[in-house]
Design goal:
globular, 13 helices, mainly alpha
């Protein structure tokens, strides 16, 4: 057995710098959000509590067709610069935190460690959202139908002048209430499936695609009701409805959604949310694991890992 055979790429070498984790996470984050951005735009529009008559859609395909026809295909990409600017550093921090907590709790060892996986996912989410939340607010303000913002700087400036700094973090507690369970579910599911599908622990791209896709779909479906509330809070400043504009916090948003649309209102955007999270999570984990694989090869003086 060669040195490469014995090497576990999942645990980066001890001399790996924090920068290595940050870079792998940054590339993964940008890839995840940029590729599936049009579907995320559709999800945002379908979750608006009181949309304009021109922005009522029967499904994902209907939304994509009508938006492309009436507003132009580029509309589906409006606000993507905000995500790219925020996703890189936010995901770098997310994965660096995740790896640190996994190492501290022993999740990188053999066997299944569900608590350690869930805890690392939750900690990663807290670090990620502290940095990403303002960029997410700008993104959704630019995604809504009739958005007048021409750039992310214009959007950020006008939102700040009209609503203050609070507007960029009004949804932060709600965001955490989504991402903490979402990431806990996602990381736990991913780590479980990765070890079941690939017990040897050697680098296998198909394993990361399949485990990431299933983990993303499960986590997205489970947290959609909270995501609907978050969308209401992050886009409230664009609404003409006085109750929506004055809505504060998760419980008030949930009560308003239930009063207006019943339990069905909490499932708005479920289809595009799952459709976007399944491939984007698969992409994210695949890119991140590939980055770790490349760095592990470098640590072995670029010797190929033999199967």
């Amino acid at each position: 057995m060669t040195q490469a055979d014995e090497y576990d790429y999942e645990a980066l070498p001890e001399n790996s710098s924090v920068f290595a984790h940050l870079m792998a996470g940054a590339f993964a984050g940008v890839a995840e959000h940029a590729v599936m951005y049009p579907v995320d735009s559709i999800k945002t529009r379908m979750q608006i509590l009181q949309p304009t008559p021109q922005a009522v859609y029967s499904g994902v395909i209907n939304a994509a067709s009508r938006i492309s026809t009436t507003e132009g295909a580029r509309t589906l990409w409006r606000g993507v610069n905000s995500v790219i600017m925020g996703a890189g550093p936010a995901h770098a921090l997310h994965f660096a935190t995740l790896e640190f907590v996994q190492d501290a709790l022993g999740d990188n060892g053999a066997g299944h460690h569900h608590f350690a996986a869930a805890a690392s996912g939750a900690c990663g989410a807290i670090a990620h959202d502290a940095l990403m939340n303002p960029f997410d607010v700008i993104k959704q303000r630019m995604q809504v139908h009739g958005s007048v913002y021409r750039s992310i700087l214009e959007c950020a400036s006008k939102v700040y002048r009209a609503e203050g700094l609070r507007a960029f973090y009004i949804s932060y507690p709600t965001t955490l209430s989504i991402t903490i369970p979402c990431q806990a579910i996602q990381v736990t599911t991913y780590e479980y499936l990765r070890k079941v599908l690939n017990p040897s622990g050697q680098y296998d791209p198909m394993t990361h695609v399949m485990a990431g896709g299933v983990a993303g779909a499960v986590a997205a479906a489970a947290t959609t009701p909270l995501d609907v509330a978050k969308t209401l809070l992050q886009t409230r400043g664009e609404s003409k409805d006085i109750r929506i504009r004055n809505c504060n916090g998760l419980f008030e948003a949930a009560r308003l959604i239930y009063q207006r649309q019943g339990l069905a209102g909490f499932a708005k955007g479920l289809q595009p949310r799952v459709l976007s999270h399944m491939p984007s999570t698969a992409i994210c984990w695949s890119v991140y694991e590939y980055g770790k694989f490349l760095m592990s090869r470098e640590s072995l003086d670029k010797q190929p890992i033999m199967t």
